[in-house]
Amino acid sequence: MAESAQSSLFREWHREHRGIILRIARANEFNLAAQEDLIQEISLQIWNSIPNFRGDCKASTWIYRVALNTAIGWGQKEKRQREKHRDLAENARFLKATTEPRNEKLEWIYEQIRQLDPIDRSLILLHLEGQSYAEIADILGISEKNVGVKLSRLRKDLTRKATDHEF
Amino acid sequence: MNFEDLKVIWDEETSRPSYTFDADALHRIVLKKAQRFRSSILFRDYLEISIAAILFVQFLRGAIRSAAEDGSPFSLMSMALILMTIGVAFVGTFLFIGRQRQKQRDTAFEQSIEGNLQKLLANVSYQIRLLRNVAWWYLFPLVPGMVLFLIATADEGALEAGGRGLFFASVFGVIYWINQRGVRTHLLPQKRELETLLSKLEAEKTGE
Q1: Residues A113, A125 contacting (CB under 8 angstroms)
Q2: Do the interacting molecules here have an ipTM over 0.85?
Q3: Any chain A CB within 8 A of the CB of B7?
């Protein structure tokens, strides 16, 4: 694949699906600098994955897959190794807060998701994002039935915590 | 409160995002990183092999020169350098084959999260095996040549030869210790964590 075609697809994906990358970064990292690092890493892996994209699934499914896999691998790396990735971003911060008021309830949801293990985190994230059971099963590599069973428990847990929190 | 209420809050983020990013700036960073990533992979792949190749040539030249000076290809120094050449060739070939196998292995996994976890686990397990056995593939192949080299230079004085022997042994010991420490403190916890995640997915697959 020519680099210009790769670059054009990368830009298109970033334009259309940047929300996916942002939300996955926020669901995995608490502070802004770490989120930026993870966004960079996810974007790099998406860039590297473009030549392997055959179009046999939706672009969004592909991006979820690459982004969640990167986030899991990212969590595995030592903090020291992760900080090595920061050098280039140091001079070019690109993540900016919008003028929207801070949504405390949303922050609380992110906090709960960050406390889950990477598998549950991926499941609930994909569910909140509105992915179907079939898509979640495909991204995770498990059956739809098991997605349903697992999500039922996760939904119940999250709802109970929200009720206890007096949302 | 039910889950649908949480979903409504989540969806607000899509319509009114709290954060955004400068796609052009990120694009520039990713291009730079992709370039750097390619060169670092190339550098990593060829550095060890290049060092082994340089040492191979140097030891071989030394062996030939020594054989010519001593008038025999079977002099102690010449034999020591030939053994070092063989040892270095073994280490270089081992590293090269290992790297190629790892590349082949990486393409065999599915791209789902389960496939990715299996790939990460296979890579960590390979690293553990490699570092645990560092003595066999990295240190011991060089030992016969080193020992013969020490014997060949023993006539310069027992103290010097002993000092050199101690130095080589210390270097080997430190290399071994660093590798085993890496396995204990970094790779084994990583392996356990991956196994836990994978077993969780597999348990879900089988409906346990």
Answers
A1: yes
A2: no
A3: yes
Q: How confident is the model at residue A88 (pLDDT cuts 50, 70, 90)?
A: very low
Alpha carbons A143 and A166: distance in angstroms, whole number: 34
Q: Residue B78 burial by CB count (10 A; 0-12/13-18/19+): exposed, middle or buried?
A: buried
Comparing CB atoms, the residue among B13, B28, B120 nearest residue A23 is B13
Residues of B in contact with A78 (CB under 8 A): 186
Yes or no, beta carbons of A155 and B26 under 8 Å apart: no
Measured over the CA atoms of residue B81, residue B86, residue B89 and residue B94, the dihedral's sign is negative
Of A7, A138, A159, the CB nearest to B3: A159
Kindly determine whether residue A43 and residue B26, on different chains, have CB atoms separated by under 8 Å.
yes
From the number of C-beta atoms within 10 Å of its C-beta (0-12, 13-18, 19+), residue B147 rates as middle
Radius of gyration of chain A (CA): 17
What are the CA-CA distances from residue A98 to residues A66, A103, B20, B21, B196 (Å)? 26, 12, 7, 10, 38
C-alpha A43/C-alpha A9 separation (Å) is: 12
What's the gap between Cα A114 and its chain centre? 11
pTM above 0.80, yes or no: no
